[in-house]
Amino acid sequence: MNIFYTILYYFQKRGFEVCRRIAERFGIRARVVRTSFIYLTFVTVGFGFALYLFLAFWLRIKDLIYTKRTSVFDL
Fold first, then answer.
1. Is the Cβ–Cβ distance between 37 and 52 less than 8 Å?
2. pTM for the model
3. DSSP assignment of 43-74
């Protein structure tokens, strides 16, 4: 049972980052975004999950390209 909680904690820590960032962008709670992805996945038979993976990939690429620098001398 400990392995189950370890896996669950891993996905909550890293997997829901997409939902949190989308929720911050639109100014709503992350829980609403998560449940929307779940309902979308059930209704469209996997499209919501594919959309979630695409957004996770896109946010990762964006973070790699646009890094926040604290000063001009960090270049």
1. yes
2. 0.54
3. HHTSHHHHHHHHHHHHHHHHHHHS---SSGGG
